[in-house]
Amino acid sequence: MRISQFMISRIAFKPIFMCTVFLLSLLPVTFAENNKPETSNNSSIHPNVAIMNVEALEVYGWMISRQAGLHMGYTEEEINQILKGIRHGALKLGEPENLQNILPVIQKLVGNKAKAFQDKQARFDDEIAKANRNINHAYIAELDLRGIAKTETGLYYEVIKNGNGEIPTAADNVLVHYHGTFINGEVFDSSRDRGTPANFHMSGVITGFKEGLKLLREGGKAKLYIPPHLGYGNRSKGKIPAGSLLIFEIELIEIKRPVKKNQPPAQIEPANNDITK
């Protein structure tokens, strides 16, 4: 997706503001803790609190650097200049005299850095996807030999347990447990390992995951084998390398249907209707 230089500046700085708003939303709790009256034994703040505060500030700095795109090929000298400007602004030393004149230069600099980083990442992804292609083909051949069911789109699946509830639609929110691995068995994401099921809208997941959920009823379990074209394609995504075939064990715990606004009062139906449990 192409973006204008004007949009680049907005994209670069708006996330920093959003991160700040989020972190500042936590401050009332911090202030409340700090403003507690001292106990009679005059106990000082636990050393671990001070350590956590230092770590939190470092993480905050990391968040700002990532949101501002400082990982996109800036040299150490360039980063030092950026840090100098951040310090200048943080200490309220006044607005730069040439701010308006320098904005186009900033937009061009940020745009060039972003484009160069994206081009480099794309070349890297292409190499990884090419290497994964042969691995995927061999694995899919094994699935065919095992007689694993396959949809018209190319999703392979095994139903582990048949549910007895509703089938989710594209308009639904769902509560799901999942365990995601690569072909080699390495776990890249797992709600089961975290101990908390995931709640999301059907439109918010990759195509293969969504298609797999539609094969189940509430209470059902399945194992999905999602090829790249139904997953993240030939571009990397977080921990997931480009061109990865993804394996998910999923459990559809609950379907949460959206409530329609201005809906007329529901008519009372006999107890044996299809929606009465």
- Average pLDDT across residues? 80
Which architecture of the largest domain would the CATH scheme give at its second level? Roll
Taken together, the total number of domains comes to 2
Distance between the first and last residues' Cα:
47 Å
Number of helices: 7
Largest β-sheet summary = 7 strands, antiparallel
Give the % helix: 40-55%
Low-pLDDT stretches: 1-17, 19-43, 265-277
Gyration radius (Cα, Å) is 26 Å
Give a count of the beta strands, DSSP E runs of length 2 or more.
7
Q: What is the top-level CATH class of the largest domain? A: Alpha Beta
SS-derived structural category: alpha+beta
Reading the helices and strands in chain order gives HHHHHEEEEHEHEE
* Strand fraction: 15-25%
In the CATH hierarchy, the third-tier topology of the largest domain is known as: Chitinase A, domain 3
Shape: extended
